Amino acid sequence: MACAIVEELQKQYGSENAAFFSGPGNLPALKLANAFGSAELLIYGAHIMSYQPAGQVPVLWMSEKSMFTAGEPVRGGVPVCWPWFGPDPNGKFGGHGYARVSMWHVAGVSQTPAGETSVSLTLTESDVDAKFAPQPFKLELTVTLGSALVIALKVYNTGTENLTYSGALHSYFNVADSSAIKVEGLAGCDYLDKVVNCDGVQEDDIVIDREIDRVYCRTSGICRVIDPVFGRVIKIAKAGSTSTVVWNPWIDKSKRMPDFGDEEYHTMVCVEAANVPAAGDARTLVPGAMGELRQMISVE
Ligand code: TA6
Of 115, 120, 216, 248, most Cβ neighbours within 10 A? Predict the structure, then answer.
């Protein structure tokens, strides 16, 4: 079944720079490749699994224990969290919404004169399990591989009522040693600390020496992951978001997650472009309106 889908996608959208294949878990996947580098994504969840600029080690992190099973979230890459960030507000379903555990559709693949390669995928309420009772919506995720990896999530209110949602581009970044990195760009920001359940102000650059799970508020700036061991800086810009989430589970939480290796906290950090309700960043679209959340990732 997956092979037939892959063959059909390759026939309809395949190109010199875009090749469909049967990915992990036999899930249909797409590899984008051009002079700027390569990226791979699953059609399931519109989930970017990897991004590797030319001449660089991979920029995104993927757990070696991730599941690749329809209905289960993938642990790593860029989970598309929508229409809720964190626990289900109605307490019925899993965290971070249903977009990341739904099968999307390929809407198009394109190449720009500058040599960038883009793919767009869509999801509507008719693609989502009825148990979620979704309002009418359309999501369009466009991934563009160029001098940066640009991830644009457009949300369309296709219904007749207001559509209120939250979410995140929950990006996992690959680092050589999480205890050696700094995350720049959030100094001075107010944060909500989900580990010790208190609020605070970020005094300086972020270092990872314990579990960190913080929602930084009223921030639309650029973050940078300074990695002295890999000898690089990952620049993370965003748009359509005033809340940024930084997460590393550290020792104990890593052990509690079956799809996260006990020692894998050493090689990752999440820096997420988010719309977090608790940070006053939930979004509401009137009928016919469109909202966009965007993250732009590059290596300096
Ligand atoms: O974005 C940080 C966070 O909300 C953490 O609290 C942690 O739960 C992480 O997301 C992963 O969530 P998941 O549902 O993918 O296990």
Answer: 216
pLDDT in tens, 7-39: 999 999 999 999 999 999 999 999 999 999 999
User: Rounded to 10 degrees, what is the CA torsion of 82, 152, 183, 63?
Assistant: 60
Annotation marks residue 292 as catalytic: no
Q: 254 CA to middle of ligand 1, Å?
A: 11
Tokens standing for 203?
């005094």
Tens-place pLDDT, residues 168-204: 999 999 999 999 999 999 999 999 999 999 999 999 9
d(CA 155, CA 46): 14
Q: Is the CB of 287 under 6 A from ligand 1?
A: no
Cis amide bond preceding 53, omega within 30: no
- Cβ 268 under 6 angstroms from ligand 1: no
Summarize pLDDT for 132-163 with one digit per residue, the tens.
999 999 999 999 999 999 999 999 999 999 99
Is the beta carbon of 259 within 6 A of some atom in ligand 1? Answer: no
Full 3-state SS string of the chain: CHHHHHHHHHHHHCECCEEEEECHHHCEEEEEEECCEEEEEECECCEEEEEEECCCCCCECECCCCCCCCCCCCCECECEECCCCCCCCCCCCCCCCCHHHCECEEEEEEECCCCCEEEEEEEEHHHCCHHHCCCCCEEEEEEEECCCEEEEEEEECCCCCCEEECEEECCEEECCCHHHCEEECCCCCEEEECCCCEEEECCCCEECCCCEEEEECCCCCCEEEEECCCCEEEEEEEECCCEEEEEECHHHHHHHCCCCCCCHHHHEEEEEEEECHHHCCCEEECCCCEEEEEEEEEEC
170 is catalytic: yes
State the pLDDT confidence band at 286, using cuts at 50, 70 and 90: very high
